[in-house]
Design goal:
The protein is 16% helix and 29% strand. By secondary structure, the chain is an alpha+beta fold. It is globular. The longest helix has 14 residues. The two termini are 26 Å apart.
Length: 352
């Protein structure tokens, strides 16, 4: 049963008292200031009627209110992602015993691809006070800390998304529990001894071991530093179903329009066999009038078909047959700013 998005708990009210401190670990906006959350949508190189650079991106956070074309490029260490990750790269934070970091990607940089891990990509960085969880869709990213910020050339071709949320320490412990279901490929991480008692699962996964799970899927409420509610859906490889049709749409009680990268001959068609439907998006049009096909978009997200449902999720999994057997998740929100931003870019979808 998914907690109703409209309800507020005492936890949320206590979090509302928190403010983002400039010296603390957090998501960072385009000019390096602390921010509660942000989303980027990187444009693909090949669009309808034109060819771009492959490193331009749109930016969104609560203060911006709608998609804005960034003045930075995603392969620059400037901009929201660079500013956020530079908290790890700069000042040798990754060598510190006062913070935890973990980089995971089923297609990590430099290393060979290995089967058996969840189809998930992201970054954790936090201390005993707070930090961030960034989930994204970019293979071979981010680079190892000692190499500094590097964006892979392979990440230029397709569209990509990234969601960064700032959390207090207690919430990040919940995030780690969620990650256990995904079984990510952690290719570089550090759990200092001061954190070991709270994070035995993360230490275990950093060593490549698979933790024991209580079930094959889990849903968890997460509250950002400023009290924004997100709901995390995670499934292991033992939950063999399309996460959008078989779980999220039914649990959220909303018909979903789904954008995901589908390879020809392996894609799942739009599905209306259950009470709530999952329909494939085929074309995106951003506010800059850039239009592109889903075949050139490696991002994974869904948005409610009906405006009154106002739910948006960003995640890990494509609507492909092989990914029914993969671990992966979704991070969902009822924030109207996020919903309007994603719903407005849907240009064409395939109904059942």
């Amino acid at each position: 049963m998914v907690p109703h998005f409209g309800s507020w708990s005492s936890v949320a009210f206590t979090l509302l008292c928190c403010t983002v401190c400039g010296t603390e670990i957090s998501c960072r906006n385009e000019v390096g200031e602390p921010v509660d959350w942000f989303i980027i949508y990187k444009l693909p190189r090949y669009r309808i009627g034109e060819v771009g650079s492959g490193v331009e991106y749109m930016y969104l956070d609560s203060s911006v209110g709608s998609w804005q074309m960034s003045t930075f490029m995603v392969n620059s260490s400037q901009g929201a992602i660079g500013n956020t990750l530079n908290q790890l790269y700069m000042g040798k934070t990754y060598m510190s015993n006062s913070s935890v970091y973990a980089l995971y990607n089923d297609g990590p940089p430099v290393l060979k691809y290995v089967r058996g891990y969840g189809h998930t990509k992201g970054v954790l960085l936090f201390d005993h006070s707070q930090g961030f969880w960034m989930s994204h869709s970019i293979p071979h990213f981010p680079s190892f800390p000692e190499r500094g910020y590097q964006y892979p050339s392979s990440g230029k071709l397709n569209g990509q998304t990234a969601l960064c949320v700032t959390y207090q320490y207690a919430q990040l412990l919940r995030v780690v529990t969620q990650l256990a279901y995904l079984y990510p490929r952690f290719y570089n991480c550090s759990v200092p001894s001061a954190f070991m008692a709270d994070l035995p699962q993360l230490a275990q996964m950093c060593e490549g071991s698979k933790p024991t799970l209580a079930s094959n899927r889990k849903v968890e409420q997460l509250f950002s530093l400023q009290g924004e509610k997100f709901v995390s859906f995670v499934k292991s490889e033992h939950f063999v179903d399309d996460i959008y049709t078989g779980w999220a749409a039914q649990a959220l009680n909303a018909d979903l329009l789904v954008e995901s990268w589908q390879t020809q001959g392996h894609e799942l068609p739009s599905n209306c066999s259950l009470p709530k439907h999952a329909m494939n998006i085929r074309r995106i049009q951003l506010p800059t009038s850039v239009r592109f096909s889903s075949h050139h978009d490696h991002s994974k997200w869904c948005v409610a078909w009906l405006h009154e449902d106002q739910v948006t999720c960003l995640g890990d999994l494509n609507r492909e047959r092989a990914q029914l057997w993969r671990g992966g998740g979704l991070i969902c929100s009822h924030n109207p700013v996020i919903y309007k931003a994603f719903r407005r870019v849907v240009d064409l979808y395939i109904s059942c």
